[in-house]
Amino acid sequence: MLLSRIQVFSCSFKVFLEKYCDTGYNEAVICAHEMVEDLDIDCSFSQGRRRRKKRMFDYEGVDDSNNQMSAEPKFKTNFLQIVDRAIASLKDCFEQSHCG
Fold it and tell me: Could you tell me the pTM of the whole model?
């Protein structure tokens, strides 16, 4: 009885996470913008310090720090990676479950 409920919950949660992976980021950004407007706070992603790699020799190439992602795409990538990890760990925990 309890095992079947856990399997149903894990299946429905997996479906929710897969749907959230598609639409969740945009919904989260919209919700965050609404909260920021209500609190009257500056709404922008802060750009972090550019990382510079110390080179010992001239033949190691040029500094490609200009090719780094800006803050918002980096945040989106990290957000989607976390959701994907949650889906993968849920599949690993309940792989004997019968949800497709």
Answer: 0.59
